[in-house]
Specification:
The protein is mainly α. The protein is built from nine helices and no strands. 76% of the residues lie in helices and 0% in strands.
Length: 232
């Protein structure tokens, strides 16, 4: 996700993002942003990179088909993670810097975490690593993510709820969904899988009707087939 999609071709490189340029502080009594899907996504990140490392440990050295499926699903989640971080760096963090300047040091820390994780993601995105090496990197990424998400949820999520309007949060969410591209069906089904029963009910109640229909017609079955093959 990049700010250039919302800027003119001759805009300066340091032009504010669309979200920042139109920042409107949430007023007391206004609806609170709906963070259910955002936080469920975090839960999935906490869960699945370690599971993928375990799947690699169990994969027989000669089982190239299973290894390819594990690598394919790893690549999907790495794209989703990178997209999530880009959305934060390009839209959410600049918006909070405008609305809550005192959050700057924590946001600096979180952006530095993203850069540290990018180094691991880069190694995982490369081809040719053996299973043991990839499993180590997946567990390293999981460790980095858990510490990062703990800080983000303790210090930044309350600021999002307090200061960002529900309308602006929904606008960012639509941009994120659009940016998922061809990965959207699998990522959406993954989020539903991760969600608790209560959160799943909320997601279905608030998602666009077309997404609910597509999930029930095809996305869920395609996701479940992949999970059976990847994790056994």
């Amino acid at each position: 996700m990049t700010t250039s999609a919302n800027a003119s071709s001759n805009a300066p490189l340091n032009a504010p993002s669309h979200s920042t340029a139109n920042a409107v502080r949430r007023r007391a009594g206004d609806p609170v942003p709906d963070l259910v899907t955002f936080l469920v996504f975090h839960s999935g990140l906490r869960r699945d990179f370690g599971r993928l490392a375990d799947a690699l440990d169990r994969c027989a050295p000669g089982d190239t088909r299973r290894r390819a499926l594990i690598d394919e699903h790893t690549a999907l989640l790495l794209r989703a993670l990178h997209h999530h971080h880009a959305g934060e760096d390009d839209d959410i963090w600049p918006l909070l810097r405008t609305l809550v300047p005192e959050a700057g040091p924590t946001l600096d820390h979180l952006e530095a975490d993203h850069q540290e994780m990018d180094a691991v993601i880069g190694r995982l995105a490369a081809t040719g690593a053996d299973a043991a090496e990839r499993a180590r990197d997946l567990r390293s990424l999981q460790t980095l993510l858990r510490a990062h998400l703990d800080l983000e949820e303790a210090e930044i999520v309350p600021l999002i709820r307090e200061h960002i309007s529900a309308a602006q949060w929904d606008e960012i969410g639509r941009k994120v969904n659009k940016g998922q591209g061809r990965d959207l069906p699998m990522v959406a089904a993954w989020v539903v899988d991760v969600a608790s029963p209560e959160d799943r009910e909320h997601i279905f109640a608030t998602a666009p009707a077309i997404m609910r229909v597509l999930y029930r017609l095809s996305w869920r079955r395609a996701y479940e087939r992949r999970m059976a093959r990847v994790f056994g």
